[in-house]
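Protein Entry — a single chain follows
Next Lines — sequence and tokenised fold
***
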Amino acid sequence: MWDKTLWEVILQDVGLPNYTRPASGVSGMGFRFGLATLLGLMRKEVRSWPSSFPQSPDFLKSDQRGSVIGRLSVKDQNWPARFAHVGLAAPGDVGSWEFQTKVYQFWTQANERGIFFIKAVLHGIYNLY
């Protein structure tokens, strides 16, 4: 049986500079600088997500999303869950988040004190994993 779910894809253009390895005999500094610049651009884009420029009404902007903050601790000792991965996913059976492919999931990593912050969350009902 085929799933007859309709999908909508929202595309956005992202301009990246074309950095290539320098010709032989040329110092490799140009390539390393180019790669560092490209990584810097990538990190900047990730920090600014969700982007504000897609025009589709189906793509919610930052000011239309929420956030979740909390502290995860180990119940029996009240120790912080240091560096634990924390996620929001649709409610379901234990472990069902691993197989959810049609709904949003939002993940982050707690810090050394078990504190986590998940930004850009769409409104909805989620389980915390």
Q: What stands out?
A: The radius of gyration is 20 Å. Helices lie at 29-47. Residues 29-47 form the longest helix (19 residues). The chain has a mean pLDDT of 78.
